Fold:
Amino acid sequence: QVQLVQSVGGLLQSGGSLTLACAASGFTFSDYPMTWYRQPPGKEREPIADITSEGSTTYYADSVKGRAIISRDNDKNIVYLQMTDLKPEDTAVYYCKRPGRQLSREPEYWGQGTQVTVSS
Structure:
């Protein structure tokens, strides 16, 4: 059974930092890229960071570029998101996602979401 289990977020201060973790099981983690999304209140879910299956290449949305680092540990089957210089606009529910695969008809999978609230 594929599972993506995310760490707990919480209340954070402006200018602070956080690390989120997403632990994967039920599939060959090292065969898949992973993506972090976030959904601010009242807004659509958006991808903010992506990492290739081997961790060799990363991509970031402009909204977090320079403040976010996505990384992965394929021995532990965990993908991480680190963010610094947190701002109130970073307040959102954060999700990790494994993509589906069209050829083998595998669906995408989502973590349960982590609420991150950044106070002014």
